[in-house]
Design goal:
- By secondary structure, the chain is an all-alpha fold.
- The chain has a domain of 129 residues.
- 57% of the residues lie in helices and 0% in strands.
- The protein has six helices and no strands.
- Helix 1 packs parallel to helix 3, helix 2 crosses helix 3 and helix 3 crosses helix 5.
- The longest helix has 30 residues.
- The radius of gyration is 44 Å and the shape is elongated.
- The protein starts with 72 loop residues before the first helix and ends with a helix.
- The relative contact order is 0.14.
- The mean pLDDT is 79.
- Keywords: Membrane, Transmembrane, Transmembrane helix.
């Protein structure tokens, strides 16, 4: 008994010369593990860094420091001069009323002078130095005013008369009464002005 031959493949879409469709590729079984390595990156280098990526272990550069605030230096100095004169008068009034030099008042004079200069003049490096010099003069002038007020009270004359007619006597009185604490107050006022100008311009 002879076996019958399998029927020839049927033409695809009626085309006798068309090739039959290849067998479907076998699919991996369900639950099979994924490929152990990711697909290679573009260009064939799987270890290439992505654009903008930071290499491992690298420290990003620190941000640039902010530029110091700009201002009008001349106006800052003029403002500091006005504040120095006003605070010198206030400090002199305190010394004349209490007959004592008060350290906190000297600190306040210096800080106000420096803060005004830095706030108006900006971050110019010369302003803290100028403020310290002006504060030094303001504290000294305040001490002179205080001594003049004390002398006027003792002599029973007006302060205007003492300052206009006996100013030399006032300066001599300051020299006679000056002690190490007097110069400490001068230095403290100058330092407070320097610090105040730095803080205001930051």
């Amino acid at each position: 008994m002879t076996e019958s031959a399998p029927p020839p493949p049927q033409p695809v879409d009626g085309n006798p010369y068309a090739q039959p469709a290849p067998d479907a590729q076998p699919q991996p079984p369900v639950g099979a593990p994924a490929a152990p390595y990711p697909a290679p990156a573009a260009g064939g280098n799987p270890f290439a860094q992505q654009p903008g990526a930071v290499p491992p272990g690298a420290v990003p550069p620190p941000p640039f420091p902010a530029a110091p605030r700009q201002g009008n230096v001349v106006l800052g100095i003029l403002t500091a001069v006005v504040v120095a004169l006003v605070t010198a008068g206030v400090y002199g009034g305190i010394v004349g009323a209490t007959e004592y030099e008060i350290g906190y008042a000297a600190v306040g004079v210096g800080f106000l002078v420096g803060f005004a200069a830095g706030k108006v003049g900006g971050g110019n490096p010369a302003l803290p130095i100028v403020s310290a010099v002006l504060a030094l003069g303001a504290v000294y002038l305040g001490q002179i005013i205080g001594i003049g007020l004390i002398m006027a009270d003792i002599a029973g004359v007006s302060a205007t008369t003492v300052f206009t007619e006996h100013f030399g006597v006032i300066t001599e009185g300051w020299s006679d009464e000056a002690d190490p604490l007097t110069f400490v107050f001068l230095a403290v006022g100058a330092f407070a002005a320097f610090s105040g100008a730095k803080k205001a311009s930051a």
